[in-house]
Amino acid sequence: MLLIKGARVIDPAGRTEAAQDILLDGERISKIGADASANITKETEVFDAKGLIVAPGFIDLHCHLREPGQEMSETIETGTRAASRGGFTAVCCMPNTQPVNDSASVTRGIVERAAAHASVRVWPIGAASVGSKGEALAEIASMKAAGIVGVSDDGKPVATARLMRQVMDYCRSLDLPVIDHCEDPTLFAGGMMREGAASIRLGLKGIPAQSESICAGRDVELALLTEARLHIAHMSTRGALEYVRFAKKRGSRVTCEVTPHHFTLTDEDVRYDSRFKMNPPLASREDRDALIEGIADGSVDAIATDHAPHHPASKDVEFDRAPFGITGFETALALGLSELVHKNKISLIRLVELFTTGPARVLGIERKIAAGQPADLTIFSTDHTWTFRAAESASRSRNTPFDNRAFRGAPMATIVAGRVVYRRESAARAS
User: Fold this and answer.
1) How far apart (Å, rounded) are the C-alpha atoms in residues 129 and 167?
2) I need a surface site. Which of 206, 290, 350, 411 has the fewest CB within 10 A?
3) For residue 430, pLDDT beyond 50
4) What is this structure's pTM?
5) Catalytic residue numbers, as ranges
């Protein structure tokens, strides 16, 4: 058994924010509150969490673990180790692997590999179409039986409105969310950063914000038509946000996520440095501010990292030749605290909601701190000062614009199924 003592518990599901002890017995939460410390034995481990926050285990709805097929950039083992250092107890890995996760056999391979090597729970996302080519439905039902929790052709949008309607109709019958990377390929083609004054100044081909919002509008209309569960991935523009708000007002089951880099950086931060090249690209200051407004008013459902590791050999090239994407697990919470909570944009309980009950609702599951619930917990500090150094990351890749950035606030320990899978060196030690 493990007793977490003296913590400030924040549980958005129960609107709880109070000092409480938590007793874990095996893979489940056993007791909470005054009863948790009663009748413990000398064999019970005690984690002194005084001055720290305990929250339900963080869930990342959107990451790339690169296995199978791209193990030079990341593996399930290294990626989930990085995730645990970011406070995540579960991660949803996108299907753009090699081969694409478009069949039950690939899904089972990921699940089995995760069972053997992952530090945190791994919940695969299956491809919406065969090979993510946008031509025919993938084996969605058999993939669900094998363990997927949603479908997406991430890296690209579901190719056509007709195919997207078929995907939504099919996934509605299976009660699976459809997760779309919203992008109009004809507007996006050849672009490298957001279209605007910054792209002109740098001489880089721009991608208009409407590339995202046009596709988001298509998807919202189809969600209204089919009554399917639609989730907009890594949303970056005000236009897409307005479509989500419209859908929510209509009572549609439409949700969305925003990444830490999109609520932190803008196109004005882009340099001739591939660590600033991502898709969707960094947006305008106006779009960034709109996203923060959406986070604050409840329009945004979750914060997701879009952790996208790349081997240095592919990323350390000219900007126009480099692939899109940055790593994100280990800096996500710190950016949320620094940019949102410490700047009084949102409350701490709202930030916790965006990492816990928000993503859980997208997946149709429950995430709370209560007796009988899985013992998945994130322990963090709002004041711990530290500097993120990419060279010390648990990931195999180093492609981040936040290298050497100083932060206030950090994950201190991550507990999955009752087991401490990560503890920051300066955190309280179990005794």
Assistant:
1) 8
2) 350
3) no
4) 0.97
5) 306
